[in-house]
Amino acid sequence: MLKKQKIPNATLDRLPLYFKYFKQSEDNGIDRVSSREISEALDIDSATIRRDFSYFGELGRKGYGYNVHALVKFFSEQVQGTGMKNVILIGVGNLGSALLNYNFTKIHDKIKIAVAFDIDQHIIGQTINGVEVKDICELESVVQDIQAEVAILTVPGQVGVDLSSKLEALGIKGILNFTPEKLAVSNEVTVHNIDLSVEMQALLFYMKHNN
To answer: What is the pTM of this model?
Structure first.
């Protein structure tokens, strides 16, 4: 059972990595793993892994390690929840199309992109990897109909800002933001920002200082 305490953001950021590792281990027929094996696979030191897991109670046993099947179920609920989450994607350009073609269910079997939106009449009406592209004018009715909770924004920065407050009003609880702008939402909406230019700068920085 989850302890009633604040979990550090750094630990929360690592939960999807742990879930992915245990899911892949399960798919490979592995029944149990040690913190050392997790450490080597994810390049996270064993002490950090044990500390992360301690926030969630006794997940393993000394001398036995961690039961893969039990941890898949546990982290699936922590990372994904127990029900299917419908995701919408707004902006079907090069990046948006690439995300539509990515098989999210391979790792997250309770997450699916249900529908995409765009303003380009040449794209609207197309189906990409089983996902229909609709006119952004239909956003309100579709979001309410499918009870979407998560949105992915792959649109120009100011467009994303303008859309974000509307998404919150429609009940969106989480946004994966690929724009470089800060979104206009309250603290009730969880935003995860992915600025590719910043990520590239970080990569170059690490390359320079690791050599």
So the answer is: 0.69
